[in-house]
Amino acid sequence: MIPWKAIDRAKVPGIEGEVTLHVRDREFSIRTAGTELMNSRIHGSEEALAELACSRLNQKSPWQILIGGLGMGYTLAAALEESGSDTQIFVSELIPAVVRWNRDHLGHLAGRPLDDPRVRVEEEDVVKTIAKRKSVWDAILLDVDNGPSGLTRESNDRLYGKFGLKASFNALRPGGVLAVWSSAVDEAFTLRLKRVGFKTEIVSVRARKSGKGSKHTIWLGVKP
Ligand SMILES: C[S@@+](CC[C@H](N)C(=O)[O-])C[C@H]1O[C@@H](n2cnc3c(N)ncnc32)[C@H](O)[C@@H]1O
Q: Is the pTM of the predicted complex or chain greater than 0.90?
């Protein structure tokens, strides 16, 4: 078996610890604090996050879409695939090194989505991006952690709690969709989405496009 090799490492803003980029043959892995954030072999549910959210939008594109976290760009590439030429996609990525790695090492994995003129990427906490503007986004796609429970970054709890969900609700246009990726089901989170006012649907998706692999959960919350 080919051993993993760390090709770069960087500090994670706001916390102790670092994020590393590993490579093994043609496979890449982004890790923080010993946990794998993303692996290039498995990205079916990350793509499903964008496909499902766009399929629930009842107005035709152009859309304004916000994606929080870039990772390896699979969700972004899938959102571009679903969108028309006038759609604008804004990506908030917390870790500057992840953006740099997408330009230098990872871009080919998802077809270099950052080069698409419809995309703007900002090195910013998506919590801040969401709080900035009201009633602007047609879709907010969140894949910043393992999901509402099992956080690798505690401060991401601000996204998944009552106030974070209210902020996303306010930032969406009527008919807009909040889509949240998670490695596990979380009934308390479903309840919170409903209490905030989202028409909520839970979809179970396989990690791999082939229909194989672990089951992941995607919540789709539509703002009435
Ligand atoms: C699991 S990866 C996302 C994978 C991505 N969906 C893809 O298709 O490759 C999580 C990403 O979210 C970023 N992240 C974590 N917390 C964040 C935050 N609060 N705001 C923005 N990005 C964040 C991480 O640095 C990482 O790049």
A: yes
